[in-house]
Specification:
Number of helices: 4
Strand content: 5-15%
Radius of gyration: 24 Å
Number of strands: 2
Strand order of the largest sheet: 1-2
Helix content: 55-70%
Structural class: mainly alpha
């Protein structure tokens, strides 16, 4: 009896280590995205030392790769419309939700596996939910980033009455990045669906084996 218990305890160690690693990665990614959200919306660095100007250039927007001011002009990201900065930050906001949800689902599945129930309904549902979150979240991420890039182009091209510089300063040239579509995330979700089918088949075989015994 003690030998069996000891072997089960040893076999759980890699699973528990995997859970810790999953959460370290998820929290690190969430913190990085949270910093991106703050910088994008606030238009400034988190900390500025030695009296340095905390304001950031317009190119700090994730969707912009070039923003050249006219000679003598001054402009910063904080001068751009607030609604535009918030829209540009939505992909990073969504990414935080995706990584936290993924960590919860993976951890739940790993705990069941550690309990000796790799084909349980909780594991199968967790993998299926993770797959749909990765696919749906990845598609929504790409869509939001595309909308943000389109909004920047639209605002930069508009000069309505009373608004001399729609981006907050006199920019000679502005250009946006190619929309970021997280193809790895989406393809991982597709692989997850295939895995959920395999786990479902494994559960069916396990039930048949129990019936034979």
């Amino acid at each position: 009896m003690s030998t069996i218990a000891q072997s089960e305890k040893v076999s759980e160690t890699p699973v528990r280590a995997a859970v810790v690693i999953v959460w370290i990665i998820a929290i690190s990614a969430a913190i990085g995205s949270a910093l991106e959200v703050f910088v994008t919306i606030a238009g400034r660095v988190v900390l500025a030392f030695n009296g340095a100007d905390p304001r950031l250039p317009l190119t700090s927007l994730p969707q912009i790769n070039q923003a050249e001011l006219r000679e003598g002009a001054i402009g910063y990201l904080v001068d751009a419309p607030v609604w535009l900065r918030v829209l540009c930050a939505t992909p990073a906001m969504l990414f935080i939700l995706i990584v936290i949800a993924a960590a919860v689902l993976i951890s739940r599945a790993l705990h069941r596996i550690a309990d000796g129930q790799p084909f349980s309904s909780i594991v199968r549902r967790s993998i299926a939910a993770l797959s749909f979150i990765l696919i749906g979240g990845g598609l929504l991420y790409g869509l939001l980033d595309t909308l943000a890039g389109g909004a920047i182009f639209s605002v930069a091209s508009s000069f309505t009455e009373g608004v001399q510089f729609p981006l907050g300063a006199d920019y000679v040239v502005t250009s946006t990045n190619i929309p970021r579509w997280p193809f790895f995330m989406i393809s991982s979700g597709v692989v997850g669906i295939a895995l959920s089918k395999a786990f479902k088949a494994g559960a069916r075989l396990e039930e048949e084996a129990d019936g034979v015994v």
